[in-house]
Amino acid sequence: MLVTLVVYPIGYSIWRSLFDARGDTFVGLANYARMFTDPATFTALKNNVIWVLVTPALVTVLGLIFAVLTERVRWGTAFKLIVFMPMAISFLAAGIIFRVVYERDPQVGLANAVVTGVYEVFTQQASYPGAGPRPGDLLVEDGAGGYATAADVDPGSTVPLPLVGVGAEYVPADPVTPQPPEQAAADAITGTVWFDFTRGGGGTPGEIDPSEVALPGVQVQALSDGEVVGQDRTDEEGRYVIEGVDGPVTVALPADNFTTPFRGVAWLGPTLVTPAIILAYVWMWAGFAMVLIGAGLAAISRDALEAARIDGASEWQVFRHITVPLLSPVLTVVFVTMIINVLKIFDLVYILAPGSSAQAANVIAVEMWSVSFGGGQNFGMGSALGVFLFLLVLPAMLFNIRRFKQEQQ
């Protein structure tokens, strides 16, 4: 059975890698030479290096943390069950789940919903992206994405600021009819900001009509020589009052009112696709590491731990100098097993990476499949890639076998 299932496939793959795509012509090492000069292979190899350097260490560390902490919480068994549960999900299902999690639209994708939520806490969001005044009206572009009055305005003036181009999704859900501002004080400037648009046509441009909508939350500034000397935000009826104006100023609507809002991160774009897939992989395998390390932790003699505590060691010192050294054989097995697994990673990369990012996320196993079965039909090159992948995995496999023999002895 070993010869049929293991030895023969390895030997045949090595032999097949020495022939051309159809298997008719012997080409020697030409497939290997071509493999190491192909940019796609270099990308796949680079990504495999990233996987090996990051993923095994991250999975092992998280598994160790979970295993240690679950021994100290009341519902440790339930927590272990929840962390281990992703192992029951196939890579195909996990890939589909994370395609939704990484969706660019924050209304759909969980990751971007969290990112945009945090971003909005610390950043003032635009009120009406894409809006602006009518061409030729009182306001002109200021060169920075905002708008300002073409001429200075004296204190005590009323400056109406009609806007158009407000997207339907940004119109207030409970529209309020804009109201003319009250008479400005001698040291103030007042006005109204509203959506200068009447459904079905009609209305007078630049004047408030009963069917038009007030625009609350618009930031209005008073500028003197480019410096902000006063500002206010429009209320529910679109009115603003800028007080403390002691000379002619420019009334401006800064660019923050109109810039396109932050819509999240392109997790599956060419730049972040590999880290995003690694996070999905860690989500699946952290439970596996936790269970193995937890089993090793349960086998540690509690006498050594208690003796260290009696001698005055802190919990961190006990963990660092007692627990981790005693767990080193288990940690090594988990780490090496993860190296073997990530070198062969295929499913998540193939499913999660969209077509636009497939090349950026490419790994050796996916390249091998693409060359052989994904349209290339070059089984000589595919076999060469398979042999190369086998050689990469072989040292980790031999290391594990050596450790198993040492433990038996």
Automatic annotation (TrEMBL):
Arranged from A to Z, the UniProt key words for this protein are:
Cell membrane, Membrane, Transmembrane, Transmembrane helix, Transport
Q: Which GO terms describe its cellular component?
A: plasma membrane
Where in this chain does the record put each ABC transmembrane type-1 domain?
45-400
A GO biological-process term: transmembrane transport
Would you say which domain of life the source belongs to? Bacteria
UniProt cross-references to Gene3D superfamilies, sorted A to Z: MetI-like
Query: What compartments host this protein?
Result: Cell membrane
- Give me the segments passing through the membrane: 49-69, 81-102, 278-301, 322-343, 379-401
- Chief site of localization: membrane
- Give the matching Pfam families: BPD_transp_1 (PF00528)
The topology of this chain with respect to the membrane is: Multi-pass membrane protein
Family stated for the protein in its record: Belongs to the binding-protein-dependent transport system permease family.
Q: What is this protein called?
A: Sugar ABC transporter permease
- Species: Ornithinimicrobium avium
Its lineage reads: Bacteria, Bacillati, Actinomycetota, Actinomycetes, Micrococcales
